[in-house]
Fold this protein.
Amino acid sequence: MSDSAIDWAAIHSAAISFRLAMPRSPAGGRLGERIGTGTGSSLEFQDYREYTAGDDLRHVDWAAYARSEILTVRLYREEVAPRVDLVFDVSRSMLVTEQKVRAHRELCALLCCAAQATQIDARIITLSSIEPRRLRDPEEIERLLSCDGAISAVQETHLPLRRHSVRVVVSDFLFPHDPDSLVSRLAREAASLSLIQLTLPEEMNPSVLGGWRLVDIEGHGELDVVIDQRAIQDYCARFGRLRLGLSRAARRTGSKFVHLIAGESLRQGALALAAAGVLEVI
Amino acid sequence: MIFTMPWGLLGLLAVPAIVAIHLFRRRFPTRSVAGLFLWQVMRRTPETGGRISKLPITASLLLECLAAFALALILAGARLRPATVSQHVVVLLDNSASMAATNSLGQSPRDRAVRRVLNEIAQLGSSGRITLVESGERPSVILGPAAFAAEARSALEKWKPDAPHHSLALGLQLAREIAGRQGRLLVLSDTSNGDNEVEGAVWVAVGEALANVGFTAAQRTISPEQGTGTIFLSIGNFSTASLRRHLRVFSGTDEVLARELDLPPGTSSFNLPLRSGLSSVRVVLSDDPLLRDNEIVLAEPRPKVVAVKNRLPQGRGRDALMKALSSISGVTTSEHEDIRFEPAGELNALVPAGGWPVAFGRAPADLFAAGDTHDFVGPFVPEKLHPLMRGVTLAGVVWTGAYSLAPGKIHPLVSAGDQALIALLGSRPEDGILFNIDLERTNLIRSPDWPILVSNLIELRRQNLPGPEFWNYRIGEWVRVRLGRQPKGPLQFRCGAIERELPVSNVSEFIAPAPGGLLQVMEGNQVLFEVGVNFLDEEESNLQHKEARESGKFDSHAADLRGENGPASDPLFWILLGVATAAVLLNWCVGATVTRHA
């Protein structure tokens, strides 16, 4: 992977109009610009309550004390900077073709740029064994996307996800799994979850190819098959069930699911993500 | 390199078969995919066959070809050293006693036969194979089959021909079977085969005509009343001139008799008196070419006296019976009778153990059938094979007073029409013998058949007394010994160095064994009887027709014998086996590694 593998100019150009969509009420985070669910020190009034020892005297409503001789303090909403965990699949399945590699890198870069534009506390998770990296400069992600893992990070059961974080998962999800348990695991204690499935066009709808020895790129065996129309129908049916399973599981957990096809333009991809609510237009 | 089984080279066809398998093996282009599990329910069996493409030279192909090549060579019997090819000679040795006759130089046909065999072995060389077959009533292999020539000398040294006269046909048949198609057949005897050549065999007669004297027959009797005995000897002079021989009789180490005998050509008989009480004696003739027929052992017979009791009523019948009995030796009158003569009406009375009832006259009521008595003048139908009827014709006999007997209760020995005249009262003589006759009126007692009939009856009973049937036998004759009771211990016989177990029975039968001598029948450690077993063979004693002659020729089509010592004899076998094993194991390892990588 060379430094010039990603056209950052094009990425920045495409990402300039988008940022990562946040949930209407982020569950928590460090002090920031987003309205939180708890009580804080923003200018937005929330409620009154009686004064108790230790309350900030600056928040005492003296006018109300004058009227009722009861010490009352004003409560304001807190402002937080939401936590975002970007989970990128760097298994070898993302290396299956150059087209998929390029699309994967561009998508990850776009999400990083969008996250940075949101001014949030974002981390990038690739594998459970690797310490999550805080997102400072999107261009730093290039060296994280080596894609040499034997399994996807999504398959790992103990990812270092933060509580109440906004989670964005990028993978092809082309591994045997139970969509309900997988999505439930990823969505557990999350503020929100977005699943982005990136596949090649031929992975979604292969063409008639004849006899092939199919070798699993992640080393899970090989198979001699004759790919004919019937075999493709069977494959497509199974692929469709896999995608439908993910989509249903996402709906059950209030998550978002987007299927992107490698080869589409970056702009089209960003619009698709915005349409799904993963990104929002600035 | 030579191949002991060239057909095994067909196994090399496995090599092109393996190449073809690798050539036509299905080889699809490889394609990397991300989700192989989505394809794994597809049909794996394609509708079309494999494609011919360039043969991939893989380690698996090379190892499989190597293993097939090595195994094919093993199957073909590949050898670095050629298989030993040797000539095989099967020698039939005449084992008759005449082969041991020595001439004035001390040489015997046996010596000449041994020399001939050794010459044959010398011609065969060290790789030669030989089989020695000894002739006899039951020919046997004394060396081989196809033994190394070096082993022949010791086997020939042990060969001592001493068998009675026999045909070589059985030995020849056995030798031919052993020779098969690879062997040459050599027959060594002291007689020639005449003009009848044995096909594919060389018949070598190594005999020599010699003058010989030998015993041809011998018996011994005793007279208990007089306390003396007699030896009856037949001595053959098988030459053209009278010969003089010195005869000596030994009892143990004591010489009890010595005679000078002048023997004219032919066979002479001699009766030599011998006192009784000498259990066994050894009779020896002075030396001559054949020693085997110069010595015999004669056991002393024990008299078998038959005790009779005559209970017939006074009259001409009783008198005739007593007169007939008095003319038979070895018969006595005793209360402990072996035979009891009595009126038929008393048949049901208790009979002492061992006594045979012989009844005359009217039988008991349970044997009667309806009807009156009848007289018969013939024709009489005797059961000729029964020992009681031996020599009995009943010609001119008027059989009187015969009652009708109930059929099914008797076993007729003589009948007239459907009337039984003499009958067994059971299946055996000891159950009783009925003479359905009135002795007072018949002329049977005055006919020549009467003493014969009584003598047969006594001898039949005598044979059933305990003891051997005879006391002196030739080699090969059946010896029959009756104990008269159940044995109390294991039975065996001992004759020189030969000891054999006998079946536990009150009657034992066995063949008199060679080389003969004094034979003891033993019950446990107790000697019951002693009998003599002797070589009395006129055919073997006569050496006048022996000759030296060679006829016939070896089978020119006889193939040589291929000597195979097994695979261990050749290092190439082990090399090939090792290569094949290593190739198979390596191929397995390679296959396992490829699968693991995949």
About this structure: Chain B has a mean pLDDT of 84. The longest helix of chain B spans residues 571-597. The longest strand of chain B covers residues 212-223. The interface with chain A takes residues 26-44, 46-48, 598 of chain B (CB under 8 Å).
